């Protein structure tokens, strides 16, 4: 069999190399969408309301995913973004209790930016592995989020805030959709069309070579983790706007979903390669899976089993390394 | 001006939250609802044959939107499913929010695509749950809640009923079981749930109140709060270091109690008795084998599900339920394991337990 496969004609070989891996997320998305569309046609899956729910529900995860694409492409990892989400949402909510809304937004985004900067500084200039740094700050800021308000949830009542970051709409377009498109677009342009983006990928691909060719890899590492922090901060605001409240549990369960979305979307876990559009589709895929499996009427345990199998399948196709 | 108004609104909100908290924690020997509702025994709420026929004819559907899945939730879930089946209502969706309010909001939005007539749910975060359930209310779905209802919701107008444990009774029964195990005197360690969670807070407080009111020869000599169940073994070890001569330890629920048990075993301590809440197989196994665990206080979780389903179904035909229904609880010990298990979870105990008991 192996011999046969190796001896395949060049055209077929080329076809095989059209990086199936790069397209798996789009293909998988399409297949799963079709599957749900057919099996759930009388369960409301295809209603505009339900489809828009999927997009709006995944908005915070998508925003986090954009930050993570930068981090993973640069060959680093950020495990702390879930707790940054909580700290940022709480910071915004607490500040808005006594100060005007813009200060709350600044506090939320500023908290995300600052924590991301601390992560990045420790990794880049403290020469510490990002896995351990962000594992530590994950715990650290989860603890801070808990103690900030003594586990209470803080209501967010400013209608302008909840409009901009949650349930509002501009010319009929839901604000969460606008944020999703905006963040993915900016992320995509920054990653694909700028020198910075090329430097990020080069740093992740081969840091030594990048350094030799004059790329400031320390600054790149600092930057990607700061961006991830900022994105997590924005995701925190989106959660706070949507729920009209902030609580220490926000973002707690997103870590694995977002990592899976980004990886399935074609970003390399060990750096050098990333895709913003892939991450967006990966995130929508995760949301659609949650949605469709619930609508299928499966019990919670069955939902988890099926979701796990599908993600495993997607990861197997997108990440299988033939050289291993 | 706007700033002042906002400040005032914030302060008012904080004050009302504090007032709510105070009511929920009125430890006057009686469980009260989250809004101070008087409790009504769950078994008093029944549907007439006429109402049941009407409900069955309606071909209704229901969704179960849980806060997380545990042994407790799955017993409630089973009760609700059985009752819905009895009433000819098909369950079209079941969800688990993993204690995440944002996910619960997404779950409610998702199940609405199936246009259920009923949602039975346990709100993750009652203080902010209004935004979670408002879309369901707007769609005309009948709601019934387990343990707690969203702040700002009114009984009858917005939801059929809250069904819960008799939380105070559970705490008090834990105290009584501890007294039985220790011969009404001794030093007690108290491991409570260090989080803003109405159910565990009430049970913990009731235990503490009952010990100090009813058992003058029993003292709580060491306390520790637990926010993360995964860390309860360290907490237990800390407690035992602080007070090595404890006669008994109260643990807020069974899962962390297993870690306490592990800490006791590691220390070679077979003297200190554990009393905890909720049924759990490993804890029960230790109990039937004559280990440290003396009693497990169990609620009738299955009946909670049955009752919540029944109140929501009743609402479909205009039958009003009392605002706050509570089910009984019981102390399960070595002696009444099989009956207790059945009464609480609606199923026989696992065979490992019945075999070990023989």
What can you tell me about this protein's structure?
Chain A is 75% helix and 2% strand. By secondary structure, chain A is mostly helical. In chain A, the strands form 2 sheets. In chain A, strands 1-4 form a two-stranded antiparallel sheet. Chain A has a two-stranded antiparallel ribbon with strand order 2-3. In chain A, a hairpin with a 2-residue loop joins β2 and β3 (173-174). In chain A, α5 (59-73) packs across α15 and α9 crosses α13. The two termini of chain A are 18 Å apart. Mean pLDDT of chain A is 89; it is low at 1-7. Chain B is elongated. In chain B, α8 (232-242) packs across α9 (254-266) and α10 (281-288) runs parallel beside α13 (351-357). In chain B, β10, α10 (281-288) and β11 (293-299) form a beta-alpha-beta unit. Chain B has helices spanning 2-24, 49-57, 71-86, 101-112, 130-138, 167-182, 198-214, 232-242, 254-266, 281-288, 301-316, 337-345, 351-357; strands spanning 40-41, 61-66, 90-96, 118-121, 142-146, 162-165, 186-193, 218-226, 248-251, 273-277, 293-299, 324-327, 329-332. The chains are: A mainly alpha (324), B alpha/beta (358). The interface between A and B is large, with 41 and 42 residues.
What order do the helices and strands come in, and which of them pair?
The complex is a heterodimer of chains A (324) and B (358).
Chain A: H1 2-6, H2 10-17, H3 20-39, H4 48-57, H5 59-73, H6 81-98, H7 101-124, H8 130-148, E1 154-155, H9 159-167, E2 169-170, E3 173-174, H10 175-193, H11 195-205, H12 207-212, H13 217-243, E4 245-246, H14 254-264, H15 276-295, H16 300-319
Antiparallel strand pairs in A: 1-4, 2-3
Chain B: H1 2-24, E1 40-41, H2 49-57, E2 61-66, H3 71-86, E3 90-96, H4 101-112, E4 118-121, H5 130-138, E5 142-146, E6 162-165, H6 167-182, E7 186-193, H7 198-214, E8 218-226, H8 232-242, E9 248-251, H9 254-266, E10 273-277, H10 281-288, E11 293-299, H11 301-316, E12 324-327, E13 329-332, H12 337-345, H13 351-357
Parallel strand pairs in B: 1-12, 2-3, 2-4, 4-5, 5-6, 6-12, 7-8, 7-9, 9-10, 10-11
Antiparallel strand pairs in B: 11-13
Helix pairs in contact in B: 3-11, 4-5, 6-7, 8-9, 10-13
